[in-house]
Structure formats: structure tokens, C-alpha cells
Design brief:
- The protein contains 6 helices and 21 strands.
- The chain is α+β, with helices and mostly antiparallel strands and 445 residues long.
- Strands 2-9-8-5 form a 4-stranded mixed β-sheet, with no helix packed on it. The protein has a 4-stranded antiparallel β-sheet with strand order 10-12-15-14, with no helix packed on it. A 4-stranded mixed β-sheet has the order 11-17-16-13.
- The longest helix has 41 residues.
- The protein starts with a helix and ends with a strand.
């Protein structure tokens, strides 16, 4: 009996020592294993590794079969040395899931069941369970009495059935703006937004508000679309005539001349350049190709008018050189009359001589003829016999009064006009290609 008690005592002591050593190792292990376990929780789980298993016959290091082992290695007071001691051989082990004796927190067993899984790869130790027993909350669960909110029902989709335009055909001039007004039907359509587009933006563009801006000549189609339904407006853009200019080859013509003129229409890319011609004064349009016949002296106004009403004109002067010569003769005698002198007599030979000299002055304005001879040689060529002769010439003046006034303001020319020894006069008037008038007076005794 004593031997059995001694063996039981030794067995309990062995269990106590083993349990203390395992507790120390577990505490040290927990110090170093807690942080790696946290890391392991953040890593992706790895495939389980096989776990070493211990012999099921190894005795549990925490408890014996009848009493509790104190932390100081002594038997608890409840241990009865007279109680039945565990067998010497094959001391049964307590399973890892057994309850802990009163007063001692549960511990993890050293042995694992055969089907236990290894901790995730990368962890240095299995996670430790908390030593504190779970606390039960006495607070009853709060009930939410608020009824669940229901999402509002979506209104039914109303499709567009038609898009009505206030204009379907539009004629515009370049630079003009016109706004289309659209009506989407039905009025409560879900997607009533209208989108606009132009088939040719070189002709016209359209803005988001339906305003069309004309850019160049041509045609384009404006599409107005809402919810896939479209209507169309056909737009024609023209480039109107903005100005017309008329120019003549010169400003002064003689009676019987043909006046040539040209018409220019701007802009150059105007859609319709058709125009009409009207002539006022003593002239007549000849052939519609830019020529008019100057039939009498006076002013002629040539006007060109485009279809859109834009017009331009030019004014030319038609002179009768024979009338000019007659008027110079009259004004000259008027000056002689003021000086108390008799009037000069006009002769055909002197008139022919004066006209010849006016033409020669166009070529070479001098009292020397273009061939270098003296001006008086022209008198002899026209059969004029004289003992005393004189000549006045001028150019640039536009009227007989102007040229006579100019001569009277020049002492040398005035002396010829009021010379009492001169009694005959011929007057010649000529015009160059630019409309400049040349004047000549031929005097003899």
C-alpha cells in the first residue's frame, strides 16, 4: 500500500514538473509568436502542412485522474493520498478538449487530433486563444423599429413620336443667321432634347439652340433629332452681289465716238452676277457688250444694276469739238470788243491750219512742229497767204471759256488776241486718247 502511494506521489511530481516546463515554454513561445501570427492573418492562406502527432499513451501534463496540481508543485488539499492512485503503466492522457479543473484557465493540449490542420504557411506558431473566459452581454439586442425605405418607382418611359419644325425650306445669304424652332411631341416625352447637325458645314453650320449660320454658297440639310426621331430642314445659301463698279476707258469723248466701259461685280464668288445696263444722256447702247455711241455733246451716265438691286455707275463727258471751236472764236472777239478793236474774220484755210496744229500739239506741244520745222510752215501748206501771222496753243483746259481766260492772263497770248494789225482767225480743237483737249489759234493780217 505504501509502495502504491509512493508511486502515486512520484507520478504526480513528474506530472507537475512536466506541466510547469510546458507552461514556461508556452509563455515564451507566445511572446514571440503573437506578432508573426498577425502577419500570417494578412497573408494569403497556404496549403496546410502535416502536423506531428504524439503518442496517445503520453500522459497529460496538466492533470491526474483525481486531483489538481498546484502551481508550486504541491498536491492540492483535496488530494487524498489514500485514494486510488493511477496505474503505473499506461497512464491515460486527458484529451485536449477536456474541461479545466476549477480555478485554472483552459490550456491548449500538447497533442493534436489526427485530423487537425496545420497553421497557414509562414506563421511561426499557431494562434493563441485568450485566457479570459468569454463575457456574456446582459444588454438585450436593440430592435430597429424604423420601417425599411422603399425606392421610388421610376416613371414610365415616354418615347418621342415626332419632331416638328417651323421651317423645312430656307433660303439664306452668306453671313445671315436664322433660328429653327422645334416642337417635340408628345409634350411629356422622357427624352425631349433636340440635337442639331449640318450635312455640309462648308455651306452652313448649326448651333445647339438651332441657330443656322450661312457660310458659303450651296445646299445643306439640317437634321433635328430627339430620342432617335428626326426632322429635316433644307437650306440653300447664296452669295449676294454687294457692289458693282462701272469704269469707262476715258472720261471725255467727242461726238460720234464709241464709249467703252466695263462692269465689275463683287464679291467674285457671287452666286448670280447678272446685271442690266441703262444709259442716260445723248448716247445709245450699241450691242450690250460694254459700248455706247456718243451722239451729242453733254454728260452720259452709264448704270449697271444687279438683280438684288445693287448698282453702280460712271459719268462721262461728250464734247462737240466743232462747237468748242466756234465758242472760242466768239469769246476771242468778245475780248477784242472790250479792247475797242474790230472783230476777227474766220476763214476756212486758217481753220484747217489751226486744226492741224492742234493735232500736232498732241504729238509735240511746241511752236515747232514735230518734224522740227517752224509752226508757220503749216500756214503755207494750207494755202494761207499772209504778211503778218501769229499762233496761240494750249492744252488741258476742258471748256472754251477756260482756255480763253488762260490766254488773256498770259501777256504774250493776250497780245496776239488784241493785236490791231491782225484781222483773220482760225480755231482748231483736238482730243488725245485720254480725253485731254488741245487748243490752237492761227492769226493773219
Amino acid at each position: 500500500m505504501k509502495t502504491n502511494r509512493l508511486l502515486a506521489l512520484l507520478t504526480a511530481l513528474l506530472i507537475l514538473l512536466t506541466s510547469s516546463a510546458c507552461s514556461m515554454l508556452a509563455s515564451r513561445f507566445a511572446e514571440y509568436a503573437i506578432e508573426p501570427v498577425a502577419e500570417a492573418e494578412t497573408q494569403a492562406p497556404q496549403s496546410p502542412q502535416p502536423t506531428e502527432k504524439t503518442s496517445p499513451t503520453e500522459p497529460d501534463t496538466r492533470y491526474n485522474s483525481t486531483g489538481e496540481i498546484r502551481a508550486d508543485g504541491k498536491l492540492s488539499p483535496d488530494f487524498d493520498i489514500e485514494d486510488e492512485a493511477p496505474p503505473l503503466e499506461g497512464v491515460p492522457a486527458i484529451a485536449a478538449g477536456s474541461e479545466s479543473p476549477p480555478g485554472q484557465p483552459p490550456q491548449q493540449g500538447r497533442t493534436a487530433p489526427q485530423d487537425s490542420e496545420a497553421p497557414p504557411q509562414g506563421s511561426s506558431a499557431p494562434p493563441q486563444e485568450s485566457d479570459a473566459p468569454p463575457q456574456e452581454s446582459n444588454t438585450p439586442p436593440q430592435q430597429n423599429n424604423t420601417p425599411p425605405q422603399q425606392s421610388p418607382e421610376r416613371p414610365p418611359y415616354v418615347p418621342v413620336t415626332s419632331v416638328v419644325l417651323d421651317k423645312i425650306v430656307v433660303a439664306m445669304a452668306r453671313g445671315e443667321r436664322i433660328t429653327l424652332h422645334t416642337t417635340v411631341q408628345p409634350a411629356d416625352a422622357t427624352n425631349a432634347r433636340v440635337l442639331y447637325s449640318s450635312s455640309d458645314q462648308g455651306v452652313a453650320i448649326v448651333y445647339a439652340d438651332g441657330t443656322i449660320y450661312a457660310i458659303g454658297a450651296g445646299t445643306t440639310i439640317i437634321s433635328c433629332t430627339a430620342d432617335g426621331v428626326s426632322s429635316y430642314c433644307h437650306v440653300t445659301v447664296t452669295v449676294p452681289v454687294t457692289s458693282i463698279s462701272v469704269s469707262a476707258d476715258r472720261r471725255v469723248y467727242m461726238v460720234g465716238d464709241e464709249c467703252s466701259f466695263t462692269v465689275r461685280i463683287l464679291p467674285d464668288d457671287a452666286t448670280d452676277k447678272t446685271y442690266g445696263i441703262s444709259v442716260s444722256g445723248a448716247a445709245k447702247e450699241l450691242d450690250g457688250e460694254g459700248r455706247v455711241n456718243c451722239e451729242a455733246g453733254g454728260e452720259i451716265v452709264i448704270t449697271a444694276t444687279a438683280k438684288n438691286g445693287v448698282s453702280g455707275s460712271v459719268t462721262v463727258r461728250v464734247v462737240d469739238l466743232h462747237e468748242f471751236a466756234s465758242e472760242v472764236f466768239r469769246l476771242t472777239n468778245a475780248e477784242r470788243s472790250k479792247a475797242g478793236l474790230p472783230a476777227l474774220v474766220q476763214t476756212a484755210a486758217l481753220t484747217a491750219t489751226a486744226y492741224q496744229r492742234a493735232l500736232e500739239a498732241i504729238e509735240y506741244f511746241s511752236h515747232t512742229r514735230p518734224d522740227g520745222s517752224d509752226c508757220f510752215t503749216a500756214f503755207a501748206e494750207n494755202g494761207v497767204v499772209y504778211s503778218r501771222a501769229a499762233e496761240n496753243i494750249a492744252y488741258g483746259q476742258t471748256t472754251p471759256a477756260e482756255v480763253v481766260a488762260g490766254w488773256m492772263a498770259s501777256p504774250g497770248h493776250k497780245e496776239n488776241i488784241v493785236d490791231p494789225n491782225l484781222g483773220k482767225l482760225g480755231v482748231g480743237v483736238a482730243m488725245d486718247a485720254n480725253g485731254r483737249i488741245y487748243w490752237a489759234q492761227s492769226f493773219t493780217d
